[in-house]
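Service request form, structural biology core

Requester: graduate student, group of Dr. S.
Request type: structure prediction, single chain
Budget code: on file
Notes: please return the result as structure tokens.

Sequence provided:
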Amino acid sequence: MNTSVTDIHETVFGMLRAKLEKPIALTDDTHIVNELGLDSVAVMDFVMEIEDRLDISVPLDRIAEVETLGDLVATVRALKGVQ
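Core staff response, request fulfilled:
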């Protein structure tokens, strides 16, 4: 699967928009816990969905480093080998 930076960004943001109960403006600086109100279980569920959709495995130590949507996209890009 040939995945570009734009594809990854759009996939992550689109999947998250579908999960949120109310529409919210999302940016790379959006803090996943503080601004979106996702708890650790919701974050793990979301990451598992991303893993399934993009055929990757995100190690737990990498998840712990993710605070913003930009961090999440960068982590997925690194795991997919997309610069």
